[in-house]
Write a structure and sequence with these properties.
Chain lengths: 380, 380
């Protein structure tokens, strides 16, 4: 069974597409475009990285003397050299639309636009972009044609970008299965500081508190701690580069969080000093938790739909091959679509809890059906 | 199919057990004990709550004139009245072991021990405890016999607790399927501040930053933000009570996090002012992320075993009933045990990503097997 997210028939991009930088993103893009029947030219400062990407099928290494002019150039270099590569590409390929895929946009846009004065550079052909695709591994060896499938790809035109250039980048993004979203550069950088860089730092900060914690304390870790700290396992080198690249927006949102944190310390200190019934302790803490409730409710649901509260049905699952699959097969047999799933394990037990999110109307009937089928449905 | 976590044959608790407080924890405990064949006496200040718990099968409402003396009394009242209830129980039942199940231990222990001087109260029969069981709903109506299954239950003796009293509470905890862990009161309170209350507040603080965020920014939310903020949806009233009850340890660990946060702001500010290549920017940020790596690696794996790195196999799953179940069934058919599972959804696509954690040795063969079976295995 194959999920058909895109096929050659639906492709709008006219090749050749030149991809500069044969790392994870560049090579994955090459694979995806060639899978859709688009000609790909590869370039990389490292001959070895280039050969690897070619051998993996990500594109051709064109002969400079005998190469069709690219219609689009995608700069997929490390972010600190992206602006220079964009400027070079605009000069080298006067007929091409040029985009880059770096995760921070305003500094690159500024550098490109600054170079265009005095004026010999046609920056109307430049449109920045940012595919929000997985980055846990790096290098062409980890490349995959489906890297972009189902991910947002932010299209970031500047004030002088031509609309046909915007459309070309948007079409390319859609052709590799991603969901294009249009945004300004600062707006994009503020957005990723908030929805990507801040959670990364929060996870890092909580996990850092565990470094010197007693082992007995860690033995009490539950699913909450695991969820909050999961992304704290991210690559330090990659993340330090991302953070310095977007330093001002990240520092701003981190300062806002620190202000909220200071406001939490006040009622906690009051309560530590005067006891749990101290006036001005419980109220502010309840209000703080309620504000978090409102924030988390704003995160859009699956498929970009409006946030929707699902109901959870929780069942005990023995820790043996196939047990969870049997449970989910029976959920499917009941005609219920699983909206989300969390597995929860605890110390010392050979069973886990499967927390199944379903539409609220389906929860009651599903609980009954699972119990009828012999599953232990438990309080969440 | 039923997960046999415990059965009447293995029960060590001699009844009757008296449960004071017929809320979620008390009623669930009653259900679990009666399921194991132990006699349960229920008590609650509210006659209605009491009748509800009895009707649900959590225990009997004993006739004061004609009641066997309990061998164990479990105080499952709200935490702010737990110490008073423990003291009353020690007085009323001179032959019984008394425990409570409140989520904070040192203040209750102090209050009980303070009352024992001058001396007429036999506090050697008191052993505090804390079952780390789900608390997302409250009240007897949400009670379930499996609430404690697979969860740690912290046993918190004080210096004067008799060892046979400790053993009785430990046996009770094991009889309802939980995993007993022994700890001192302050040690317990510090531990839950770190592994439970701090992640709750971190999730709340990140989610609070979303309250006024532009909708376009929220549309870029990925799995990282969802994981970090999931528990920010918790009940404000419940959590404000938990936090004031453990205010000093929570404030202490929150201050430590704030110090780490301030250390992150320095290199970010330097980089915002002097650019991404500023000296002293990348290095400290990489070190901070690396410290988080070390912390998250200390969280014990499934079943309390040593932390173990699993490998992830990621496959595309169409959003239709039964698709995930088919995938997991085929994982089971390959003889591979699923260690953990995350579902990832993105805006605008009718497919999801299933990230399957397996033992490292199983990852390569599983990827090949799934591809052979027609699944799209993608880069994580």
């Amino acid at each position: 069974m194959t999920a058909a997210t895109h096929g050659p028939g639906a492709v709008g991009t006219r090749g050749p597409v030149k991809v500069i930088g044969a790392g994870l993103l560049g090579a994955s893009l090459g694979l995806a475009l060639r899978g859709a029947g688009v000609e790909v030219q590869l370039a990389d400062a490292s001959p070895q990285a280039l050969a690897l990407a070619r051998d993996l099928g990500a594109g051709d290494i064109p002969d400079p003397a005998d190469t069709a002019a690219p219609s689009i150039v995608v700069v997929a270099t490390p972010p600190d050299v992206a602006a220079v590569a964009v400027i070079e590409a605009l000069r080298a390929h006067p007929g091409a639309v040029v985009t880059d895929v770096a995760s921070v946009k305003a500094p690159i846009e500024e550098e490109v636009l600054a170079t265009s004065r005095p004026a010999e550079l046609d920056v109307s052909r430049y449109v920045g972009s940012h595919p929000m695709a997985g980055r846990e591994r790096s290098g062409a060896a980890a490349a995959h044609a489906d890297l972009f499938a189902g991910r947002p790809w932010v299209i970031v035109p500047h004030a002088g970008s031509a609309e046909d250039a915007v459309l070309a980048v948007r079409t390319l993004a859609a052709d590799v299965g991603s969901a294009p979203v249009r945004m300004g550069a600062s707006e994009h950088d503020d957005a990723v500081a908030l929805v990507s860089h801040l959670p990364q730092l929060a996870a890092t900060l909580v996990a850092t508190r565990l470094v010197d914690a007693p082992e007995e304390a860690l033995a009490l870790a539950g699913q909450g701690l695991r969820d909050v700290t999961r992304i704290a396992a991210s690559d330090p080198q990659l993340w330090s580069t991302i953070l310095v690249g977007n330093a001002a927006p990240v520092a701003a949102v981190l300062r806002q969080l620190r202000e909220d944190l200071d406001q939490l310390l006040e009622p906690l200190d009051r309560s530590a000093e005067h006891g749990p019934d101290a006036p001005g302790a419980t109220g502010p803490l309840a209000q703080a938790v309620a504000a978090g409730n409102r924030g988390v409710e704003r995160i859009p649901g699956k498929h970009g739909g409006a946030p929707r509260r699902y109901s959870e049905v929780t069942a005990l699952v023995p820790d043996e091959p196939g047990a969870l699959a049997r449970l989910l097969a029976e959920v499917g047999e009941e005609g219920v679509n699983l909206e989300d799933l969390h597995l929860e394990h605890s110390a010392g037990q050979r069973v886990g809890l499967a927390r199944i999110s379903v539409l609220p109307a389906a929860a009651g009937p599903l609980e009954k059906a699972l119990e009828r089928r012999g599953w232990q449905v438990v309080a969440p």
